[in-house]
Write a structure and sequence with these properties.
Elements (H helix, E strand, L loop, with lengths): L1 H24 L15 E4 L12 E3 L3 E4 L6 E7 L5 E5 L15 E6 L5 E5 L2
Antiparallel strand pairs: 1-2, 1-4, 3-7, 4-6, 5-7
């Protein structure tokens, strides 16, 4: 009986160790949802929504994203991670981009002259 209990305890300890190592190996990036903006995304919020609460546009893929019908002041939050940045651009398809927006930061910008947003690889 004692051998069975010791065997079960050893198995449980080994299983717990494997689960702990597996969890650490697949740890999620440090980013968290921020003002409704999902991990790894760049979000644009409705005009004059201050503070930012729920995004109207959410972008995940690197490269340019053309905008339409975005006028006035909007929050643009960069909730990407790993050093990825975002840029507001006056031209379509990522032309005429301004200074990059660092991960974990946002800008309250007039999007009237902005025609695209780029998500930039680190």
């Amino acid at each position: 009986m004692r051998k069975t209990i010791r065997g079960a305890a050893a198995f449980a300890t080994a299983a717990a160790a494997v689960m702990a190592m597996t969890g650490a190996a697949h740890a999620k990036p440090a980013a968290d949802p921020w003002a409704g903006c999902p991990d790894g995304a760049v979000c644009v919020y409705p005009q004059n929504q201050n503070p930012a609460q729920s995004p109207s546009l959410v972008f995940y893929s690197y490269g340019p994203h053309n905008l339409s019908n975005q006028f006035g002041r909007h929050w643009v939050l960069n909730n990407q991670y790993g050093g990825a940045t975002a840029s507001l651009c006056t031209g379509y398809n990522g032309a005429g981009c301004g200074a990059p927006i660092a991960e974990g930061t946002g800008v309250y910008a007039d999007l009237t002259p902005i025609n695209s947003i780029t998500l930039n690889r680190p």
